Amino acid sequence: MKRLSLLFTMLTLTAAGSSAFAQFTQSQMIAEWQRARAYTKEYLDAMPEDGYGFKPTPEVRSFAGQMLHLADVNYAFTVTASGKPSPFGQTGADHGQLGRTIPQTKEATTQAVMASYDWLISILQGMTPDQLQETIKFAKEDITRFGIFGKAFEHQTHHRGQTTIYLRLKGITPPGEKLF
Amino acid sequence: MIMKSLPLWGTLLILTFPGESVLAQFTQSEMVKEWQRAKAYTREYLDAMPEDGYDFKPTPAIRSFAEQMLHLAWTNYFFASWAGGTQNPYEGKDAGDLAAHTREATTKAVMDSYDFLINTLQNMTPDQMNEMRKKGKDIEISNANLFGKAFEHQTHHRGQMTIYLRLKGITPPGEKLF
Fold first, then answer.
1. Phi then psi for A157, rounded to 5 degrees?
2. Interface contacts A/B by beta carbons within 8 Å
């Protein structure tokens, strides 16, 4: 009897995982973020220095402004997903710090954007499966910490995408779409 | 009795922990919900651009707004049929031929592509989702991850169209991450 109930427990535990639909390993997730980092670097490299202040219309962010916003939000989502403060003490409320403080030069912007990916990747590498599956409240919704990294991924894709047209308007052929 | 139960135990343990390397998991309802949001978000872009903007190109070298949208739609079909192992209804067709480049026809074609993808996704089993596929010689990728690539693709192109709207003097829809 004792053995049977233990068996049932095991079976229940096995079945509990049946809601898992798609599974990602740590190495897959890190590889996706490293690709994203390299892809964004190609954009940073493609824009010449004099394009960093370029805006397609006066109401929108400059190229550097877009890239620094991307970096700011990489930090903000990582802070939310991990519960850790950013290297410069950001705790999530402010996500405009780099946009206000980093000079909008090619060198400084590139450095700040790459540092944001590096920090995100290092935090992601340090998280356990249990931590990533933990559900938290964000924007009034229940979401896993893993899901927050997914939102961060979407966010940087969206803004990098926008800057494709900035490059085109400067007469530059953008980097090829690097999905793999 | 104890000895006999051990192999069974071992089997159960192996069944329980085959995904030891698994770090994170999505449920089917989470993935479908993300795609439904993506569909609604793209719909806001389709609605935001007036009819006369569907042929608009920021520079002559690139796709018009309608061509961007139809490329997005074509690629939704491409990835969904690849990951789902189903027939791509637009196999061999160019994206630009998916529909007339009017607001109405483009909107319908794009919405249909999301419905096709979401329907494919809903019919996948967990085993199918985690099945690995070869891409070229060097890349192995799960069907789940192919849906992820499709998601990234449509985000990238929708993102580009933000600037098309801005150049037409239109404030784009707010970023709909949730």
1. -65, -45
2. 159
